[in-house]
Write a structure and sequence with these properties.
74 residues, alpha+beta, 31% strand
Length: 74
């Protein structure tokens, strides 16, 4: 989870997508879609270029009933 925070802080779409499954759901500006890992990298790269990260702070982390790990942050 720490590496995810580092990827978010640095705005590295490439590093962040290392933690994604082959298909990922992204919700940006109220629009939610499923994307391939490669598509998600392009979308996040564009997002980070428009909105460079200032600071990521972890609020909570846990796992779903299916065993998927997640982190909530600001």
């Amino acid at each position: 989870m720490e590496d995810i925070g580092l990827a978010l802080n640095s705005g590295s779409a490439r590093e962040l997508t290392n933690f994604f499954n082959n298909v990922v759901e992204l919700k940006i500006d109220g629009e939610k879609e499923n994307y391939s890992k490669k598509q998600a990298e392009v979308i996040l790269r564009n997002f980070f270029s428009k909105y460079p990260p200032i600071k990521f702070s972890k609020i909570h982390n846990g796992s779903s009933p299916e065993g998927l790990l997640y982190v909530l942050g600001k």
